[in-house]
Amino acid sequence: MRSVSGRRLIVGMAFGILGAFVAVALDVAIAYLREDWANPVGIVLVAGVAAVSGVLPLLRADRSSRSVVEPLPPPARPSGVSASGVRTRKRAKGVPVLAGVLVILVLCGGGVAAATFGARYIGGWFTGDETGTDALAEVRSATAGDLTLTVGRVILTRHFTKVEMSATNAGEMTLSLPIFGNCHLIPDGDHQTLEGDSFRSHWPEQVPAGQTVRGTVTFPTLPDGVSTVSISFSNIVGQFDDASITVADITLS
Fold first, then answer.
1. Coil, helix or strand for 101?
2. What is the CA radius of gyration of the chain?
3. Which helix (H) or strand (E) is 198 found in, with range?
4. CA dihedral 202, 203, 206, 210 (to 10 degrees)
5. Domain spanning 133-251: which CATH class is it, in words?
6. What confidence tens digit (pLDDT) does each residue in 65-112 have?
7. Who contacts 34 (Cβ-Cβ below 8 Å, separation ≥6)?
8. Residue 218 in contact with residue 160, Cβ under 8 Å?
9. CA of 242: how far to CAs of 25, 232, 239, in Å?
10. Fewer Cβ atoms within 10 Å of its own Cβ: the N or the C terminal residue of the chain?
11. What is the pLDDT of residue 86?
């Protein structure tokens, strides 16, 4: 059975690790740009790139793993001495190719898949772009002056509560709905009010005159047992003094 030297096995692992770094970096960049950290196809591709990068060097011809084949010397001559008087030797065998390939697949393929999953977990938590389930039982709206706010989805993820909304400005002036210190999710009962996370949200804030904008505001995880919430913007900038808007009685299934 063909074998590979320990040196070539180390080279293969080095190439696999290098391929893993490149593949993981590309996967993280794509997930960040697409705002999707849950696509399993990327994990499979990264593991495949790392494994192939490590396996290819093993499949190349390895001179150091070949045995030197020479005719046996006559019985009268000492063992290991050729007819010309030159001592011959057999090069040490390396690791079987199949075993080397399995090592690369387990260490580079499986290890990189686990590392990619961890990177996606951290990326989803850091950016807030986690997938979840829609818990909204019914679309709810509220109107304050020229502004109408409609809640279309309430997505519960591993770490966050994400409220997808649309805002329609029927007036002639641009309105603003900032998140920081201004947007709150209010659970029913005695639970604490949750503040919107402007860094992890995808909310345009500006609502031009005569237009509708859509986006998502991200909040911390809702407490267990909450069945009804309200969402409020304490101040509608640009409309009139002390103007606010609240979508109340948002029922969760």
1. helix
2. 32
3. strand 197-202
4. 110
5. mainly beta
6. 444 444 555 555 555 545 555 555 555 556 676 766 677 667 666 677
7. none
8. yes
9. 47, 13, 9
10. N
11. 53
Say how far apart CA 96 and CA 104 lie, in whole Å: 13
Question: Among 44-48, 59-63, 172-176, 207-211, which stretch is predicted with the lowest mean pLDDT?
Answer: 59-63
Which residue carries 């770490």 as its tokens?
159
Per residue in 216-231, is it b (16+ CB within 10 Å) or e — as a string?
bbbbeebeeeeeebbb
φ, ψ at 226 (rounded to 5°): -75, 130
Tokens for 50, please give them: 């790392």
Domains of the chain: which residue ranges? Answer: 3-127, 133-251
Structure-block tokens of residue 157: 């993820």
- Structure confidence by residue, pLDDT tens digits, 9-34: 676 667 776 777 777 777 777 777 77
Cβ atoms < 10 Å from Cβ of 4: 25
Q: Do the bridges between strand 245-251 and strand 228-233 make them parallel or antiparallel, or are there none, so unpaired?
A: antiparallel
Write down how long the chain is. 253
Q: What is the pLDDT of residues 133-190, one digit of tens each?
A: 999 999 999 999 999 999 999 999 999 999 999 999 999 999 999 999 999 999 998 8
Nearest to 133 by CA among 151, 155, 153: 155
Q: What residues contact 106, with CB distance under 8 A and at least 6 apart?
A: none
